[in-house]
Amino acid sequence: MEKILAVLFEFAFLYPIIMSFFWMSGGLYYYFRRERHARPRTDPPPLESYPKVSILVPCHNEGENAEETIGSALLQKYPDFEVIAINDGSRDNTAEVLNAMAERHDRLRVIHLDRNLGKANALRMGALAAQSEYLVCIDGDALLDEYAAHWMIWHLTSGPRVGAVTGNPRIRNRSTLLGRLQVGEFSSIIGMIKRAQRVYGRIFTVSGVISAFRRTALHRIGYWADDMVTEDIDISWRLQLDHWDIRYEPNALCFILMPETLKGLWRQRLRWAQGGVEVLLRHGRDFLSWRKRRMWGVMLEYLLSVLWAYTMLAIIVLWALGKFIALPPALYVHTILPSWHGVILAMVCMAQFASSIIIDRRYETQVGRNYFWMIWYPMAYWLLSLFTTVVALPKTLLKRRGKRATWVSPDRGIR
Amino acid sequence: MKYDSRLIRKPYAQPRLKRAAWGFVTAAFWGLYIYLWLPLITLILWLLGVRTAFFELYTRKHEIEPFLIVAIPVMAALCTVLLIGWAEYNRYRFARRDRRSPQEDVARDEVARRLRVAPALAQQLGQSKVTLLHMNDQAIPESMSTPALTAHVAHAAG
Predict the structure, then answer these.
(1) Distance in Å, alpha carbon of A25 to nearest chain B alpha carbon
(2) Distance between CA B83 and CA B86 in Å, rounded?
(3) Does B72 touch chain A (CB under 8 A)?
(4) CB-based contact, B137 to chain A, within 8 Å
(5) Phi and psi (nearest 5°) for B105?
(6) Rounded Cα gap, residues A339 and A13, in angstroms
(7) What SS3 state is found at A87?
(8) Contact by Cβ (8 Å): B131, B145
(9) Beta carbons within 8 Å of B84's beta carbon, 6+ residues apart
(10) Contact list, B98 vs chain A (CB under 8 Å)
(11) How many CA atoms lie within 13 Å of A158's alpha carbon, on the beta-carbon side?
(12) Do A128 and B86 make contact, defined as CB atoms within 8 angstroms?
């Protein structure tokens, strides 16, 4: 029993460190190999031909944001594109805002759905209405950089295997500590994970807030599923299970709003964690085939993260129990203070921050300033990921299958 | 806004070596500056019991856990070699070789069939500028109409 506990402790300590090593080495490798001497964001590579692009913007109660979001999508520096706003049964003034904009802009088309059917169905209708094979999908509150569509189409037209491209979301709202922390999180954790996964060859998920798809690829897998909590994780797994390549394009920037309250952050992250568990339960069996072996790494990483969350929980519970009741010596946890292990964690954390600054300064000035605020964030990140995973697993297991996922009003921070 | 466009801030216009050199000089002077505070820092640390901690961690055991000194860098190296080796192997093996043959772009009629939408409705939707889709409970559009541009769709939904 003591041996089992020792193994659990080692796993709990080593898992975040080993993942960090993979993220850092993958992130830096990607940067030095593909980004460092690449063309600047404002000078995307020329294409042989410029096929038409359809930018799909599903909107639900986006009256406040629609003007800005659609406005920035319409400013794309790309010769041939249309913007399709899909108003998914909004109850605010989204319809009026979109209609008024449609009168002013030739490139804008508007589809109103007569009821709220969720993002997946809105995107399905957008894909049906699109006049193009190439679909760039953004959220109703996300500001697309003017070169983003060009960068993404460059990947999609570069080879027949490329089924989707995921972009680089940047956080707009930075007024509060939570906002600033997420700026650091997106560069030091999320951006690096995406790069490392790209180096491995398969990614866990596209960013639902900015991604581009080949319609033929979506067609083969049956488009977005409307009963998944996070349609982006699901579509990424299904595309890759159908052997489509998903690329990451850091130059495809998109400015997004993130929660700035603890409640908003918790709800968002719980939804992400639920999405992960849901796809694991739904597609887990599909991975067993040898032909799907390239996805094993992604699945293994995810399984280990769930196992780690429960291991940490077990250690904390045993330690707390030991304070009140007499546990057998084999189960008694003396302390959860990390001592020398803490020094290693701190060093790895610093190394990860340094790596992300090296990479991210290409996209944002003074990105390092956020690291002053986020020194404790890696710990918060792992704790948040621990608790959301622990809650998400039973919640997903108890969820009614086939229930349509509709919009939840997110916290969008201070405007 | 405090931003003043007349200010010139272009640190990256200097050669990298020069920037790095000035960075090192500043860091060294920071070290010197902190050294001035050393007596006070020592006093505070002593009051906080750091001497005891130092004794517990170092002097009594006379060792640092060798596992951490040796195993962690080895793990870091292994992770790096594994991931980059895999990436380079794939690059070497698959560069300029596309195993997926190009596919015909899917036509709108096929998209409509997959989404269980009537082809005529799909064609009409593809050419529309502003439209209202009447959806059924299975999230399939049954018909479409052109809303008055000032109408509130939520009202249309009832």
Answers:
(1) 5
(2) 5
(3) yes
(4) no
(5) -65, 140
(6) 12
(7) strand
(8) yes
(9) A25, A26, A29, A199
(10) 159-161
(11) 18
(12) no
**One pLDDT digit (tens) per residue for chain A, 415 residues:** 678 878 888 898 899 899 999 999 999 999 999 999 899 999 999 999 999 999 999 999 999 889 999 999 999 999 999 999 999 999 989 999 999 999 999 999 999 999 999 999 999 999 999 999 999 999 998 999 999 999 999 999 998 889 999 999 998 887 777 777 788 788 778 899 999 999 999 999 999 999 999 999 999 999 999 888 888 999 999 999 999 999 999 999 999 988 878 888 888 889 889 999 998 888 888 888 888 888 899 999 999 999 999 998 998 898 899 889 888 887 888 777 666 677 788 788 888 888 988 898 888 877 677 667 767 677 777 788 889 999 999 988 887 666 666 656 566 666 5
Other beta carbons within 10 Å of B74: 9
* Shortest Cα distance, chain A CAs vs residue B77, angstroms: 8
Nearest to A192 by CA among A356, A377, A21: A356
B134 to chain A: closest CA residue: A114
**A327 to chain B, minimum CA–CA distance in Å?**
27
In chain B, residues with a C-beta closer than 8 Å to the C-beta of A90 are 153-154
The span from the CA of A252 to the CA of A249, in Å, is 6
Partners of residue A201 in chain B, C-beta under 8 Å? 86-87, 90
A37 contact partners, CB below 8 Å, separation of at least 6: none
CB of B15 within 8 Å of any CB in chain A?
no
Minimal CA–CA distance to A193: which of A25, A366, A392, A361? A25
Q: How many CB pairs under 8 A join A and B?
A: 153
Would the CB atoms of A90 and B150 count as touching at under 8 Å? no
Query: Residue A294 has what DSSP assignment?
Result: G
Q: Do A114 and B68 touch (CB under 8 A)?
A: no
β-pair type (A134-138, A53-59): parallel
ipTM score of complex = 0.83
CA of A21 vs chain B CAs: smallest distance (Å): 6
Instruction: Classify each residue of A281-301 as buried b or exposed e, where b means 16 or more C-beta atoms within 10 Å of its C-beta.
Output: ebbeeebeeeebeebebbbeb
A168: tokens are 């680089």
For the entire predicted model, the pTM comes to 0.83
The burial class, CB within 10 Å (0-12 / 13-18 / 19+), for B11 is: exposed
